[in-house]
Amino acid sequence: MSIKYESQKIAQYFYTFAVVLFLVQVLVGLIAAVQFMRPDIFILNFNIVKTLHINALVVWLLVGMMGATYYVIPEESETELWSLPLAKMQFWATVIAITAVVLGYIWQGLDPQANKLIAGTLALNEGRKYIEAPRWADFLIVVSVLLFLLNCFMTVMKTRKWTGIQGTLLTGLTFLAVMYLPGMVYFKSMVRDQFFWWWVVHLWVEGAWEIIAGALLAFMLMKVTDVKREVVEKWMYIEVGLVMFTGILGTGHHYYWIGTPSYWLWIGGVFSSLEPVPLLVMVWDAFRTTRETRVVDNKPGLYYTVSHAIFNFVGAGLWGVIHTLPQVNKWTHGTQITTAHGHLAFYGAYVLLVLSMIYVTLPAIRGVKSFNHSRALQSFWWMTISMVFIVLVTTGAGMVQVYMERLMGLDYVAVKTTYNLWFWILRAIFGVGFLIGVAIFVIDFFKLGREPLTVAKVATERA
Ligand code: HEM
Ligand code: HEM
Ligand SMILES: [Fe+2]
User: pLDDT tens string for the chain (463 positions)?
Assistant: First the structure.
């Protein structure tokens, strides 16, 4: 395996930054989990630790998707990237901006007064969950994304080879970029503010990002098996069409209790209940394609791709649909049930997506045909089993929380500190398991293709 175009190597820059942030994200996630039992264990308080945890998550996934796209576009367009220096500059600008934002959150944690109002905007943290970056950073992010899109579009224009995969990928990325904008506007009314904040959060993960996932899934299936392009593209169109049909109006499942008109109860309930359908089609697509191909060289690539499809359906689809009807959400809204779903959905749909793209493309970037598969599979099992337990434990905590707090009327803090305690202990233990999996993955990422392979290892992998 080797790359066809030299500029595809740029993907590795983005992957490396993504992988480092992934490690940071999980480390601080574990600290956050311990803070449920020992709130003052760390120099930064829970609010800042959680901000770091979820913002690092969103950012490393975006950076990983950018890297993956820089790999896919030259290959599909059959030409070098329009401008490699521009891609490199855009990479370093992104690293600097993100590092500055992270340092800003830490600074705010050490000195809350430092988050001053400057020219009508907060200097360090805007305070909107998942997209807390301050306004100056928003502009830098927008510029970076525009340069990235420009580079991709100009590459396609060089040969005008608009394959279905890259057309869909770039549509998803453009949708993603446009949907960042509503998150940059403040509204005095909390109802309006929440209304548009959800355009970013929901229309990203259940719209734009799923479109990108559909395109990358098609690409990966084509790479790891020898399925025909026409077949994967046909299914990709069906998946993406259904994602848009269900996901856009599915935004209504966030409009039940924020002060918006009551018709959203119906719209949100009906459309979001249908959201698992395209995700199920993706699982079927992955299984059908895989079953037809017997000999696969890149087993980790295949493993991660199929698992991504499965856990996208389980985490987003199943763990989403259980609390999406207003009749249920009325009780579960904003509890640990939501947290459980947030973890499994992000893990299945996007963490595994970026990791599968890494395993599908990195061997080619490093110019190796065979590599040691065992670490990739070990890290997969450590991470996946631990995540499943973290999710089961938080779902249990959420059920206790709903019952005691909302049905029995016990105090919110009392339930969290006393009745949920054992769930927190278990979550922290499984968190350690997850961290072990990430550590193995990070080692594998840096070593893949760079260590001598023993003959015995190659032989067992071929068997
Ligand atoms: C990959 C796709 C998805 C991701 C990454 C995702 C992630 C999340 C996250 C992080 C939250 C918590 C937001 C907050 O901080 O308040 C959330 C909320 C929610 N999600 Fe998803 N989700 C996905 C797909 C779905 C699907 C397909 C459904 C329905 C079938 C769904 C139903 C819900 C509902 C109802 C809530 C609101 C929970 C509440 O009221 O507290 N999600 N989602
Ligand atoms: C790749 C893996 C992970 C993903 C995708 C992820 C994702 C998320 C998301 C989306 C949230 C916000 C959910 C909400 O507020 O409802 C969150 C919060 C949190 N995460 Fe993670 N996380 C991961 C790993 C971990 C690990 C390993 C731990 C440690 C046990 C952890 C502990 C926490 C804690 C304690 C919170 C705060 C929950 C709360 O406010 O109730 N996370 N994570
Ligand atoms: Fe949603």
Answer: 689 999 999 999 999 999 999 999 999 999 999 999 999 999 999 999 999 999 999 999 999 999 999 999 999 999 999 999 999 999 999 999 999 999 999 999 999 999 999 888 899 999 889 999 999 999 999 999 999 999 999 999 999 999 999 999 999 999 999 999 998 888 899 999 999 999 999 999 999 999 999 999 999 999 999 899 999 999 999 999 999 999 999 999 999 999 999 999 999 999 999 999 999 999 999 999 888 777 788 999 999 999 999 999 999 999 999 999 999 999 999 999 999 999 999 999 999 999 999 999 999 999 998 898 999 999 999 999 999 999 999 999 999 999 999 999 999 999 999 999 999 999 999 999 999 999 999 999 999 988 887 654 554 555 4
Widest Cα–Cα separation across the chain: 67
Ligand nearest to the CA of 275: 1
Ligand 1 atom, smallest distance to 349 CA: 1
Task: State how far the Cα of 420 lies from the Cα of 461, in Å rounded to an integer.
Answer: 45
What is the token pair recorded at 96?
């600097």
Top mutation candidate among 206, 245, 329 for ligand 1, by most atoms within 8 Å of CB? 206
Beta bridge mates, 117 = 122
Nearest residue (CA) to ligand 2, atom 20: 29
- Give the residue, by CA position, lying nearest to ligand 2 atom 14: 339
Return the structure tokens found at 196: 């548009």
- Tell me the β-bridge partners of 118: 121
Measured in angstroms, how far is the CA atom of residue 390 from the centroid of ligand 2? 9
Instruction: Enumerate residues lining ligand 1, CB below 6 A.
Output: 129, 205-206, 253-254, 272, 275-276, 316-317, 320-321, 323-324, 329, 333-334, 338, 341-342, 345-346, 349
Side chain identity, residue 304 = Y
| pTM: predicted TM-score of the whole model, two decimal places | 0.96
Q: Give, to the nearest 10 degrees, the angle between helix 135-159 and helix 46-77.
A: 10
At 118, which helix (H) or strand (E)? strand 117-118
Q: Is the CB of 29 under 6 A from ligand 2?
A: yes
User: Which positions ≥6 away from 434 have C-beta within 8 Å?
Assistant: 26, 30, 382, 383, 386, 387, 390
CA angle 428, 322, 197 (to 5 degrees): 80
Pick the residue whose CA is nearest to atom 43 on ligand 1: 342
